[in-house]
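Wed. Picked up where I left off yesterday with Sensor histidine kinase YesM. The coffee machine is broken again, so keeping this brief.
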Amino acid sequence: MKTTFRSRILASYIFLIAVPLILLGAVYYRTSLQVVTEQAQRNVYEIVKKNNALMDTKLGIIEQNSLALFVDKDLFRVFSKLDPSNEADIFDADRQVSSVLSKYFTLNEDVYAYQLWTSYFTFGQMLPQGDPTRSDVYRKAQEAGGKIVWYPTYDFVDMFDQPYLQEGKLDFRHLFSATRYLDFSYLNNTTLEKMPPGVERPVLTISFKLEALRSLYEESFPENSRYLVMNADYQVVASSDPGKVAQQYKEPWLEQVQQENSGTLRMTLDGEAVIVCFDRSSVTGWISVVWTPESTLVSSLVPVIRTSSLLMVVVMGILAMVFAYFMADRITNPIKKLLGAMRSVGGGDFQTQVAYHSNDEFGILLHRFNRMNEQIRLLVTENYEIKLREQEAEIQALSMQMNPHFLYNTLNVMNWTAIENGQKELSKMLVCLSNMLHYTSRKDWGAVHLSEETEWMSNYFYIMGARFEDKFTVSYEIDPRLYEYKVPRLLFQPFVENAILHGFDQMETGGVIHIRGWIEGDTRHYEIADNGRGMSGDTVHAILYEESSSIGIKNMIARIQLMYGGEYGISISSASGAGTSVLIRLPLHPQN
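Structure written out below (C-alpha cells, as returned):
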C-alpha cells in the first residue's frame, strides 16, 4: 500500500512538472522578449525626459536672467540718458551694456551670443547681421510685448539677408534664439521709475548654436535611433537628418505626438517596427521625438533569451525528476514519524517530541503535535500539583484543629479570669486570639470575603500593637466595591507580618502600614506599603525567585497562580531605607 501511494505521488509530480515545461519555455521566450522591449522603451523614454529636463534647466536659467534685466539699474540709466546721435555716447554705452550682459550670460557655455538690438546700434557681441531689427526674430519679440520668445533654429544667412555669406563656412550658420522686448524700470526707494516714452526700448536676443541640442541627443540614444525637435508649428529645431533643420516637417503620425505632448507609441515607419518616445519642454514648448527600431533594442538579447530558454527547459526537466523523487520521501516520512509518536502518546508517554526541520505544512503539523503533547503534559502535571496542594491544605487544617473545643474552653476560662481581675486589655487580646484561631482552624480553605480577611487583620494588628507597644499604626484605603469579591484566606498576613517583624525592627515608634485596594479594568489591586527600613534588590529577588526563609510569601504566590493563573501574582518594590510596597494582582471575578 505504501509503495502504491509513493508511486502515484512520483508519477503525479513528473506529469505536473515535466509536461508543462515545453509550454513554459515558449511562454518564457515570448514574455522575455516582450519585457526586454518594454524595458528598452521605458529607458529611451526616460532618456528623452531627462534630456528635456536638462535642457529646460539650462534654458530656464537664461529665461530667469533675462527677467532680471527688466529692473537692472545700470541698463535703466544707460538707455534713459543715451543720445543715439552721439557716437561717443553709443560706444561708451556699448561698453557698459556688454559688461552688464556678461554678468548674466557668460557663465552658460551653451550661449553663443548675447545682444541688445536697437534701430541705431547692436549692443554686446558683434555678428554680421546688418540691421537685425528687420529680422523675423526682432518682429516676434516686438509682438510678444515683453514675453520671452523661443525662436526655433534658423539659417543665419536667410534670417539677416546676408547673401555674401552663402558660400562661407560659418560655425554660426544655424542658430536658435531666445528674444525678449525690454521695457526697463527702476525702483527708487518706494517710487517706480519708468523709461521716458520717447526712448526706444531694446530687444534682448540670446543665440545658441545648433550643436547645443545636437550633442545632447546624438550621444545619449541607442544606435540607429533618429530624433526630431520641433515647435508647435512643425518647424524643425534639431534633427538627426541635417536636411530637415530649419524646415517645416509635417507627417500624419506627428499630429498625434503634438496632441499628447508626452508618452510612447509603437508604430511602423517606412516598413519598420519602431518605438516612438516624445516629451514636450516646459520652457520652450518644443517637443522632442525619438524613434528607435525594435530590432535594434533586442537584437543583442535574442540569442541569449533563446539559449537561456532551452537551457531552462533542460535543467528544469532534470530538477523535476529529482524533486519528484525526494518530494515523495518528504511527504511519507513525516507521516511515519507522526504515527510512531501517536502510538507512544497512546501508551502514556507524554514526553514524546517529534523532530522537524522545515516550516512547511508538515513542519507545522509536527510542531502543533509537539505543542499539543506538551500542553497535555502540563495539564496533567498542574492537575497533580493542585491535588497535592489540596491535600497539604487539608493536612494543615487538620493539624490546626487540634482539639479546638479544648483551646476555646481554655481561652474562655482565661478571659473570665482576666475580667474578674480587672485586666480588660488582656481580656481583649484573648478574644482577638480566639477569633483568629477560629478563623484559621476552619476546614474550608477556599476564598473568603474581603470583610472576613480585614476583620482577622484587625484582631492581628491589635495583638501585635499590644506586643510592640504601639510601635506602628495602620490605615486603610479600600474601594467599597472590593468587599463584594472574595480573596484567598490570609492574603495579607505574610506581608504585614514581614513589615512588623523586619521592617520596623530598628524603629521605636512612627511605623506606618497603609493597606490600599482599587479596581483597574478587569484586575483587582491590593497594596501593603510600609515606611520601614526596606530591602535591597537582591533580597527582593531572593524572596520572589530563589530559595529563602519567606515560606509564607512563596506559598501565597503559588496559591494565587494555582487559583487564578500565571498572569496574576505579587510584585515587591523596595529599597534600603525607603520602605517596602507589595502589590497583589487578582482577576475581577463576579461574586460567588
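Quick read: The chain is about 50% helix and 20% strand.
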